[in-house]
Every structure is written in structure tokens, then in C-alpha cells.
């Protein structure tokens, strides 16, 4: 459905996309994941035909984005990060206008607008002025716009950016529903977003592709990087106990308050592991820490494993790319990449030319 080969994009002397290759197969929901400035929007705009590339080859549904740009663009519904909407138009009117621009034949226009509004869940605001819509609704109108010509492929740039948790949940449900009929490539800088919405993930940073694989494999890399334990009572004793647990490197007080009823101190203690602790040892260390506190008679209010930040996952992937395979998670990712490289190579070999 999408084939990207050695894509490069320069803005003047700045390399925004640096030799990126990947494939997206039909029926998948794929997350394009990377921190700010990674090159996500640039890549998605090139794939949607809105921006030229410096070099490389991109095919959308078998159409070369440069040599058959009209066919390629007709196969894509693109929702940019900042959806350009006309505030003085009503939703229905706007979508009919967009359908016309996208070449939907007049006879089919109304039906396709209705269909897009239904899929994007905006029927109830069909006659509302766009300028009066909430951010969540405007985002969904943007989604209806991407859907109005009924393209097989949807490219959504940060579809949940700036939405509140309720709106994010609605957009996620919407995307899950769309995947029955459309292939979806969406960008985000939030790892949990990809974990919840996508089958596969492509990770980029600083314009370079770092990893590509099943979301499950990337998820494995997100290990408990630290532990927050909230205790009540003798906080100093709790600190001493935790510092004595093998595998715990540092413990510090993240916060401390007085309990309103007992007047005891309630503190959240932040524990980090000794370097390069593999997953199984982290689990064992958490169990040992809790057991040691209970054994010392310290009351525990909450135990929370703190997931590694996206940057840490990126750091592991980058180390892995450099060939250092020192941690269990890193090895997993290396295997994932090796398999994917083979998958991609096989797919290339078997793809019709
Ligand atoms: N029109 C432009 N001219 C010059 N540099 C640009 C232009 N657009 C983007 N860049 C630069 O290219 C790099 C990639 O930008 P891009 O917007 O593609 O990243 P992104 O991953 O989408 O980031 P974000 O999540 O912040 O939107 C950044 O360093 C950005 O500053």
C-alpha cells in the first residue's frame, strides 16, 4: 500500500529525512512514532503529495508519487496536524466543497459526504458553522475531509494532538473503526498512543528510521525504569531499608507530606535500579523492595512502576543500531529489526513490479 525507499528531504542545508525506507501493507494501522522534529510531518506530507522529496522513491497503492502523482494523491486521505478549515462555512457545505475539489463526481458527492460524516461521527454538527466547533469536533471534521473521497489509505498527522482525554478516546475508537475499510498511517510522539491504536510501529528520530516492527515488540522495550513507593510512618527507616535492597541503586524522596489524620509523614520514595538490570531482575527487585519494607513494619500506600520514557526507548534503539546488544530488551529489538529487514526484503522480492 505504501512503499518508501531511501527517502531523503533537505530543507536548505538541514536534513529533515535521512534515507528512510519502510513499507505499510494493506489493512494495517501503522504508527509513525518520533519526538518533536523527528521528520514525521515532513515524511507524511511527502507521502500525501503535498511536498516534494529531495531523493528517493515513494509508491502509494502502486502509483509513483512523482510520475503518477494524481493517481497517488487520489489514493490518500490526508489529515494535516493543523487542519485547515474555513470557520465561516458549515460542516456539510465545507465537506461538499472538499469532495468537489477532490474530484468526487457530482452524482456521488452527497452520498460520500454523508458517509464521511457518519464515519467521522460529525452528523450532529452537519449544519454548524466550523468556527463554532470545539477542537475535538474540528479534528473530526478534518477526519471526514480525509475520508470524503473514500480513499483506501488514510494518513493522519498527530490526530489526537491538543485533544482532552475524552476526545482522545473518541478519536481512537474512530480510527479503530476506520481500519476495517482503510489502511491507516498515523503519526504521534506519544508511545502509549501507538500502543493503544496501532498494529505496527515505525520509529524515527532526527530524520532516521530507528526501528520498525509489531507494536508488541516495541512495547517489550518499555521496561519499568524506576519505582515510586509511597510509605507512611518512619520515612528515614524506609529509605535505609530500600537502599539495602540488592539491585536498587538510588532512593530519594520525591515528595513528603503530613498525613491529616495520623500526623505521620507520608513520603513517595523514588528508586532507580543499578545499571543494566534485565527485566526479570527488575521484577525480582520490586518484589524484594516491597517484602523488605513490609518486613520492617513500614506501611505501604502505593507502589508504582515508572515506565521508561520514549527517549530511553529511543536511546536503546540507537545503541542497538550501533551494534551494542547488552540488555535483554535491546536484544529483543535487534531481533525484531533483523526479522523486519528480512520481511521487507522478502516483500520487495515478491512484490509485483
Ligand atoms: N519548511 C521548513 N523549513 C525548514 N525546516 C523545516 C521545515 N519544516 C520542518 N523543518 C525542520 O525539519 C525537521 C523535521 O520537522 P517535522 O515537522 O517533519 O518533524 P515532526 O517529527 O513532525 O515534529 P513535530 O512532532 O514537532 O511536528 C525539524 O528540524 C524542523 O525544524
TrEMBL record:
Cross-referenced SMART domains: AAA
Q: What family is this protein classified in?
A: Belongs to the ABC transporter superfamily.
> What range does the record give for the signal peptide?
none
Select a single GO molecular function from the record's annotations and give it. ATP binding
**A Pfam family per the record:** ABC_tran
Ranges for domain ABC transporter? 2-231
Q: Where is the composition biased (Basic and acidic residues)?
A: 334-346
Residues that span the membrane, as ranges: none
Q: Which UniProt keywords apply?
A: ATP-binding, Nucleotide-binding, Transport
Q: What is this protein called?
A: ABC transporter ATP-binding protein
SUPFAM superfamilies cross-referenced by the UniProt entry: P-loop containing nucleoside triphosphate hydrolases
> Sorted alphabetically, which InterPro entries does this protein's record hold?
AAA+_ATPase, ABC_transporter-like_ATP-bd, P-loop_NTPase
Q: Where is this region: Disordered?
A: 321-353
